[in-house]
Fold:
Amino acid sequence: QAQLVESGGGLVQAGGSLRLSCAASGRPASSYAMGWFRQAPGKEREFVTSISWNGGTTYYADSVKGRFTISRDNSKNTLYLQMNVLKPEDTAVYYCAADKLPWGIRIRSANSYWGQGTQVTVSS
Structure:
């Protein structure tokens, strides 16, 4: 199975930027769709963005389109999330996910490996 470790979270003022990283191990990352989810206090976990196994296709939640960018570097087994123009409503624990089956275009939250999460807090 894959092990995923997120990093890069922290406290930032509204309008600022953060870059999250997700380091994968246990299996090559090159053949699996990956993505980011987030969960705010009192809310259900929600989809943020995903990237296909080869990086050719991306999807974004409407709430982050134009502000967030997902990317991957398969040579480093690492997934990234660049977050710009952050808003207080972006405050949440952000989780990295990797699909359990290869060649995927979209991430499947019900059949994925998960990281431990990293806290992002945006002050107003």
